[in-house]
Amino acid sequence: MSAATTYYQTNLTTDIIYLKGVGPQRGGALKRYGIENVGQLLHHFPRRYLDRTNIKYIREVKIGEEAVIIGKVASFGMQQARRRRFFQMTLNDPTGYLTCVWFNSISWIVDKFQEGDSIAVFGKIEFRKGFQITHPEFDILEEGEDPVNTGKILAQYPSTAALKAVGLEGRGFRKIINVALELVVEEIEDYFTPEFRDEEKLLSLHEALEQVHQPNDKPSLKNAIYRLKYDEHFFLQLLMALKRQAKEENSGRVFSQRGKYEKDIFKSLDFTLTDAQINVLKEIRSDLARRSPMNRLIQGDVGSGKTIVAVLAAAIVISHGSQVAVMAPTEILAEQHYSSFLQFCKPANIKIALLIGNQKKAEKDKVYSQLESGEIQLVVGTHALIQEGVTFKDLGMIIVDEQHRFGVEQRKALIDKGYSPEVLALTATPIPRTLAFTIHGDMHISIIDELPKNRLPIITKVVKPARMDQVYDFMKKEMDAGHQCFVIYPIIEESEKMDWKASDTGFKKLSEKVFADYKVGYIHGKMKKKTRDEQMAAMANNEIQCLVATTVVEVGIDIANATVMVIENADRFGLTQLHQLRGRIGRGSSQSYCVLVKNSKTPEAEHRLKVMESTSNGFKISDEDLKLRGPGEFFGTRQHGYIKSKIANFVEDGPIIRQTRKRAFQMVEYDPKLQLDKHQNIRKQFKENYRHMLEFVNIS
Ligand code: ADP
Ligand code: MG
Questions:
Q1: Which residues of the chain have pLDDT under 50?
Q2: Residues 157/159/165/166 CA torsion (nearest 10 deg)
Q3: Which residues are CB-contacts of 625 (< 8 A; sequence separation ≥ 6)?
Q4: Whose CA is nearest to atom 15 of ligand 1?
Q5: Which of 160, 237, 242, 307 is the most exposed place for a label (fewest CB within 10 A)?
Q6: SS (HEC) of 407-438
Q7: Which residues contact 181 (CB under 8 A, 6 or more apart)?
Q8: What confidence tens digit (pLDDT) does each residue in 416-461 have?
């Protein structure tokens, strides 16, 4: 084989199996890991660097810190402690000894070491009989690789058990990457022209790939990382720019007059709009008056008053004789919107309908025919709106609530029911700016960052289960004063029987014992809709004093008289969800309280609950959430499959995101279809990166 390979020209598209030192066995493992060719191998970036400046001597380590230590293997072998067998390896450096231990499935480790091997270990320092790390990450170093002695910065790669089994951990990876760099480095073609790189102060792709794997020094490494992050963000922003461009190219309708409906609704409001609401409304009016369709997202905390803004926008469009569709992700939320729209639109006498999955066929058919005839001016619904049977006479605007909970295809399906309708999206999940640029980056974003003036900030306290008696006493006082309470239980997975038991027992205990003298209600997602509605209505009418609920209460309930929310097992909720739950209280003018019951003591749980205690600012909370969970987890990965970051970091890369956004949007404004010669390679690369998104953009 090695004789044959010399005839191959190795390049980025060469199958990984044919790279010298790989072969079928390692190649198979790499492919299962997602590395199919040499280019993908070179884009498998180091997870960490061993740099002599971040390596600690054993003498210097502190208990609890994470440290990298370089030393030599002194001894190793199986050990027996009580009933447990484990593997132990001791290493020493010039200042002392450190023990590393592995428990449980340890067969893979027993033949990894030889006495005298140079080794780098990384992990959290503990102290038993001496300094110790349990399950460290480790990297055996070659002769001359030891960064302390050579002054080199050494790359360490992410790996898996399957890759380790074929010798592809740190050292093994470094070797094949070295081969790849030597064989192909001359051929790596850059999609950015030299002029572009000059302007943006970027290394060439070739240099960046070389330096990210084998840095000469710290500044080169920094530049390499900058270039590679730049690439990922740039193409993502280019996608956003092209998507926006594709939408704005459509010529829509002009809705230039405020119209009678909007004025009637406006006049009948029993509150004054906040400045933030007024500003957003102005932006919307000017969008509507332009020919290209509106493409705007309103981001604002729960209770910030997005609904009335959406209502007024809808009224403008309806005044011009067009229809409006409001789509919400759940039936409860659709029903809530339906009743808000009904209420706000009463003075204008607009004809409004509801369309959701569990309506009777006759009912749906009636809505279908009245939408087609134009009799219905505004329809609120769920995914039911995008069914085939739904036809509009003239759909002028769509309003999508919690838009990130719909896929792009679903939003597109609704848009396609009109002729370039105006698009207004709403979200109460305030996300960090940097991520907003990526997830909603093709839209114009308006922010409502001000709550109506009559609200008092909610007081939040974390308590241990042992203190529940005090909490219950406090709730009784509130209920005696005429207020209402929520008690929430987490249902993480609907199939988890344990969770259901928790809320069932909780309800039983509260209704029969603790609050036996009070009116206690119960709702959960598995309940018949009718029963649930009755309970909700009873709560809204102040006939229930304490409502026990699973997270179905997250959306769709707006009760100004509710002042206490107790969240059981609060540590099991994510920050964004806690924030949204808490938003169900504090909606009236009385002081409200949120009690977070803490059952777990993990540092993450403690941290999350501290954040909730310290702020009610949705942006701060979402920033933290992003840090804790990463962008993939933030909303669930389904809708955001296009964010495939290998090196980009949406928390830290704010300045790069802004820079690439500016550059990408400029490029598309100047050359909307990327037809200029100097953009050909960028266009090619874009199409390669985003093959599955091409239907949403307009380049050939
Ligand atoms: P969001 O949809 O942003 O969560 P809503 O639109 O449901 O918030 O508004 C919450 C409540 O506040 C509603 O009862 C609404 O009528 C009321 N509201 C909206 N704007 C104002 C305002 N400027 N002043 C007082 N109350 C308001
Ligand atoms: Mg709302």
A1: 1-7, 493-495, 635-640
A2: -50
A3: 574, 575, 576, 634
A4: 305
A5: 160
A6: CHHHHHHHHCCCCCCEEEEEECCCCCHHHHHH
A7: 42, 209, 210, 213, 214
A8: 999 899 999 998 876 777 778 887 888 999 989 888 887 788 999 9
Distance CA 189, CA 192 (A): 9
Nearest CA to ligand 1 atom 14: 558
Closest residue (by CA) to atom 17 of ligand 1? 305
Judged by its nearest atom, the ligand closest to the C-alpha of residue 303 is 1
Closest C-alpha to 192, from 690, 672, 699, 660: 660
Q: Which two tokens stand for residue 395?
A: 């759909």
The pLDDT score that the predictor gives to residue 531 is 87
Residue 700: what pLDDT?
76
Give the tokens for residue 414.
């609704």
In this predicted structure, what is the pLDDT of residue 554?
52
Kind plus residue range of the DSSP H or E element containing 547: strand 546-549
DSSP state of 511: I
- Cα–Cα separations (whole angstroms), residue 241 to 100, 238, 438, 660, 668: 51, 5, 10, 11, 6
Instruction: Give the DSSP letter of residue 690.
Output: T
Q: Are 392 and 323 in contact (CB under 8 A)?
A: yes
| 291 secondary structure, DSSP code | S
Q: Ligand 1 centroid to 302 CA: how many Å?
A: 9
CA geometry: angle 181, 184, 186, nearest 5 deg: 105
Asked if 700 contacts 673 with a C-beta cutoff of 8 angstroms, the reply is yes
- The C-alpha torsion from 525 through 526 and 529 to 532, rounded to 10°, is -60
Let me know: does 504 contact 581? Beta carbons within 8 Å: no
Pocket test for ligand 1, best of 307, 455, 559, 585 (most atoms within 8 A of CB): 307
Residue owning the nearest CA to atom 24 of ligand 1:
452
- Size of the chain in residues: 700
The kind and range of the H/E element at 289 are helix 275-289
> Residue 530, Cβ neighbours under 10 Å: how many?
8
Q: What is the pLDDT of residue 2?
A: 45
The pLDDT value recorded for residue 235 is 94
State which amino acid sits at residue 231: D
**DSSP one-letter code for 580:** H
Residue type, 364: K
Residue with the smallest CA separation from ligand 1 atom 11 is: 303
Average pLDDT over the chain reads 88
**Which atom number of ligand 1 is nearest to the Cα of residue 307?**
6
Element (H, E) at 397: strand 395-401
Closest residue by Cα to atom 26, ligand 1, is: 452
**Rounded distance from Cα 476 to ligand 2 centre (Å):** 29
- The tokens of 181 are what? 């760099």
The predicted pLDDT at position 8 comes to 58
Instruction: Tell me phi and psi for residue 620, to 5 degrees.
Output: -65, -45
> How many A from CA of 255 to the centre of ligand 2?
25
Q: How far is the CA of 302 from the centre of ligand 2 (A)?
A: 6
Instruction: Please report which ligand is nearest the Cα atom of 586.
Output: 1
Instruction: List, edge to edge, every strand of the sheet that includes 378-381.
Output: 352-355, 378-381, 323-327, 395-401, 422-427, 295-300, 444-448
**By the 8 A CB rule, do 316 and 258 touch?**
yes
H/E element, 122: strand 118-124
- Integer Cα distance of 80 and 78 in angstroms: 7
CA torsion angle 406 410 415 417 (round to 10): -140
Rounded distance from Cα 558 to ligand 2 centre (Å): 8
How remote is the CA of residue 333 from the centroid of ligand 1, in Å?
15
> What is the CB < 6 Å shell around ligand 1?
271, 273-274, 277, 300, 302-308, 428, 452, 454, 558, 587
441 contact partners, CB below 8 Å, separation of at least 6: 236, 237, 239, 240, 661
Give the three-class secondary structure for 346.
helix
Q: Under a CB-based contact definition with an 8 Å cutoff, are residues 459 and 592 in contact?
A: yes
pLDDT at 642: 55
pLDDT at 54: 78
